[in-house]
Design a protein that fits this description.
Shape: globular
Order of helices and strands: HHHEHEEHHHEHHEEEHEEEEHHH
Largest sheet: 11 strands, mixed
Number of strands: 11
Strand content: 15-25%
Mean pLDDT: 77
Helix content: 25-40%
């Protein structure tokens, strides 16, 4: 087999793992040099033949990623969120959606976030090649669009996960519920909650004059509390030690409390209280106070261990993103264009999906009963690039 044939066969197999282009066969190779194509990852397909879907249902995890680059580029795309440890080098921020379970994860959507300064500047848009139909969206809005696309494409997901950067946004949580997915998201310790057994006061009784009020209310004595206040007020018996996975040197274990609460953010604008959901609180034994807080709409009868396992699945995405950045160069892009950014990300993610599918299908890395993906036949009359014309 010639080097050209070997390379094109590899591209063919890689293209089957992630839907990169709209063409039916071998579209990846000719499109690499096509400057007029948009290289954003295509719509999610329900039959992606990659390991995590072969192992059953998965979770959908929203993630915010920042890529380092030069100081010149850092001035071109400012951030609007909390500062990062490498703030002086950060210039590009992407919102991604990954499917994950205990075996593997893979990004299914990857979109560059653009602040108002870019979206509203025609000169910047033209210089970076930003498509005309791209309007400003906040990061939670981008994430919700990605989740809607995943559900519409038939991705089998049990829960949506996100860190506190997204989970603290009430509209984001409500959007996930409207999509039809339960969630397990991080929140800040200052998030206001109604503790177990408490809820807002009912609307005032109509006096017979004026317009009747329908909004639930609070008063000086009846107020929600913060998640931290709730945690510090729980009795000792509310905490249980839970081990959720093997770490590098030892098992990862912490104390957790799980209580049913009602989120209270601006609920005085509603006519009914918000439904009850789980508040999961993590308090490691060697810490003076709780360190992490989560809200979840997973079923009320779920066990504490299952709730912890679902919430902690985000480690898989973070670990795989480390591989994507360090081994496949996802964070190495230093260009200045919209198309180039998504082009680079698409190829890195496609390569990673290919490697995962190969790894997970062969024991001992994968299970002994793994389903091997059927090889597609080459189309009739196909000739590898660089090979001599048989005529």
């Amino acid at each position: 087999m010639s080097p050209g044939e070997l390379g094109d066969k590899a591209l063919h197999r890689l293209g089957r793992v992630v839907d990169i282009t709209e063409e039916a066969h071998f579209a990846m190779a000719p499109c690499l040099g096509n400057r007029d194509r948009d290289f954003q990852p295509r719509s999610i397909q329900p039959d992606i033949d990659f390991a995590i879907l072969l192992h059953g249902s998965s979770s959908l995890c929203v993630r915010l990623g920042a890529g380092p680059s030069s100081a010149t580029l850092a001035r071109r795309i400012p951030r609007d969120g909390p500062p990062l440890c490498n703030e002086h080098t950060v210039c590009q921020v992407a919102v991604s959606l990954s499917a994950a379970n205990d075996h593997a994860s893979l990004p299914l959507a990857y979109r560059l976030y653009l602040p108002h300064e870019w979206v509203d500047d025609p000169a910047r848009r033209a210089g970076a090649g930003i498509p005309e139909d791209v309007a400003f969206q906040t990061k939670p809005q981008i994430a919700l669009d990605q989740l809607r696309a995943a559900v519409a494409a038939g991705i089998d997901a049990e829960v949506a996960l996100a860190d506190a950067g997204y989970g603290n946004d009430t509209d984001f949580r409500d959007g996930i519920t409207e999509i039809g997915l339960p969630y397990a998201v991080g929140i800040q310790s200052s998030t206001s909650l109604w503790p177990p057994g408490a809820e807002p006061l009912p609307p005032k009784q109509w006096s017979g004059r004026g317009r009747p009020t329908s909004s639930i209310r609070r008063d000086a004595e009846h107020q929600p509390i913060s998640a931290k206040q709730l945690a510090l007020g729980l009795p000792k018996k509310a905490w249980r030690r839970v081990t959720w996975r093997e770490g590098t040197n030892t098992k990862l274990t912490a104390r957790f409390a799980a209580v049913r609460v009602r989120p209270a953010h601006r609920d005085y604008e509603r006519s009914t209280p918000r439904p009850e959901e789980w508040c999961l609180i993590e308090w490691p034994a060697d810490e003076p106070e709780p360190t992490k807080y989560f809200l979840s709409t997973l079923p009320a009868n779920i066990s504490r261990r299952a709730l912890v396992n679902a919430t902690k699945l985000r480690w898989r995405i973070e670990r795989d993103y480390q591989d994507l950045k360090q081994e496949l160069g996802l964070g190495h892009y230093e260009g200045r264009g919209w198309r180039g950014f998504h082009h680079h990300a698409t190829l890195c993610i496609a390569a990673y999906g290919f490697l995962i599918s190969e790894r997970e299908a062969i024991p001992p890395s994968g299970p002994s009963d793994a389903i091997l993906v059927e090889e597609h036949r080459l189309p009739a009359g196909y000739r590898p690039r660089g090979s001599p014309d048989p005529t």
